[in-house]
Amino acid sequence: MRILWLNTEPLHPLDKGGKIRTYQMLKRIKREHEVTYVSFAGADNHETSERWSEYCHRLVTVPRRERPKTGLHFYRDLVLNLVSSLPYAIQKYRSSAMRRTIERELRLGDFEIVICDFLASSINLPPALSRPSVLFQHNVESTIWRRHYETQHSFKREFFRSQWRRMLKYEKAACAEFDAVVAVSKVDRNLMLQELGLSDVYEVPTGVDTDFFRPRSSATRASELVFTGSMDWMPNEDAILYFTREILPRIELAVPDVTLRIVGRNPSKRLAALAASNSRIIITGRVEDVRTHINQAAASIVPIRIGGGTRLKIFEAMAMEKPVISTSIGAEGLPVRDGEELLLADTPEDFAASVIGVLTDAHLAKTLGQQARKSVCERFGWESAAVRFMEVCENVLGNKARRRAA
Question: What is the DSSP string of 23-34?
Fold first, then answer.
């Protein structure tokens, strides 16, 4: 199959969950199918030019400079967005240069199917697309913005409400234009069917590379917790602020030497200030290999209150035999069982108690970790996810051919 794959950025560096999910699937898809990958790219990304052949046969990029989420230009863009019908997370990717590039590829290339990776990449699709098309939805975007709104109690609340309503409107309209939508969990699929009014939604579950993420023999730090994830994604920052404000002080009472290591790209000034004021908190920024930090921790925490899709960080920690403590939203969409492969806790008191239990009970921590590793090895490989994704694409092509023949 000849595939035109559209995204808002190249996949390297593999520094956030959506990139990892797409990379692991495309790496397998390109063995049997021809993939042209089109995305924006910055001028300073050397890995893009060196490693793109790992996941596609041809890379086409359009220059774009990503604005930092601070400063005069950023806040000016937010103000200008107040008069737009589009949510800011979609509008910022609107590009006539990208639209022209996609139109050129469609005109000159003999593609059988077009795949939009993430909702934002759909903004530059030409209207009345003649090719069969699939939207790969890593999250239900409107759900994320609704949860931002629901957890805000400051002047930002009305802003998040406005962004949620605009995102919901755009997401409904955009998803309906595709021949099929791929969700990453049963929870997300049901949300798209019920809240977005879609019909052709398919589930392709999240996987993990269990050969890459595996237990190591080096010693762990008995009282260290780890959180992994892109720290420029608002739900991750919110999770850390919530954890350090509401949960960590409760843990300190029982485990006085507890520390928290935050591993992920682009931590904000607010997080840097938090670490500077609290010696228990270590911020690494982007790292070359997250496994080292997961391995040395006694447990992995996922105190997420806002989000959608599925958290790869949970499967990665499970594959390394680390006990995981998560909120229900943090583990949403993953077929894992509370008390079997991980611990779920949704109040500060319960979350702290679960962490304390793991840090003070070596048998509990070992049992959770071993069961977690066993579960992901048996049930969650990337190979089956890639096969399932291409089955959806084949189904779309078949349905389109039958409609034309009718």
Answer: HHHHHHHTTTSE
Distance from C-alpha of 249 to C-alpha of 195, rounded to nearest angstrom: 38
As beta bridge partners, residue 38 has 6, 60
Segment 51-60 shows an average pLDDT of: 96
In 3-state terms, what secondary structure has residue 217?
coil
Q: Which residues are paired to 59 by β-bridges? A: 37
Percent with pLDDT over 90 in the chain: 79
pTM: 0.85
Q: Average pLDDT of 312-328?
A: 96
How far apart, in whole angstroms, are the C-alpha atoms of residue 341 and residue 10?
A: 33
Tens digits of per-residue pLDDT, 334-364?
889 999 999 999 999 999 999 999 999 999 9
The set of residues, in sequence order, having a beta carbon less than 8 Å from that of 121 and lying 6+ positions away, is: 6, 7, 8, 39, 93
Taking the C-alpha atoms of residue 283 and residue 269, their distance in angstroms, rounded to an integer, is: 11
Tokens of 110: 């003999």
Q: Which domains does the chain have, with CATH numbers?
A: 2-71+95-207+382-405 (3.40.50.2000), 224-379 (3.40.50.2000)
Check whether 243 has a pLDDT greater than 90: yes
In DSSP terms, 6 is beta-bridged to 38, 116
pLDDT of residue 143: 93
d(Cα 276, Cα 271) in Å, to the nearest integer?
Answer: 9
DSSP output for 34-84: EEEEEEEE-TT-HHHHHHGGGT-SEEEEEE--PPPSSHHHHHHHHHHHTT-
205 has a pLDDT exceeding 90:
no
Q: Using DSSP, state whether 343 is helix, strand or coil.
A: strand
**Pairing between β-strand 113-117 and β-strand 201-203 as defined by DSSP bridges:** unpaired
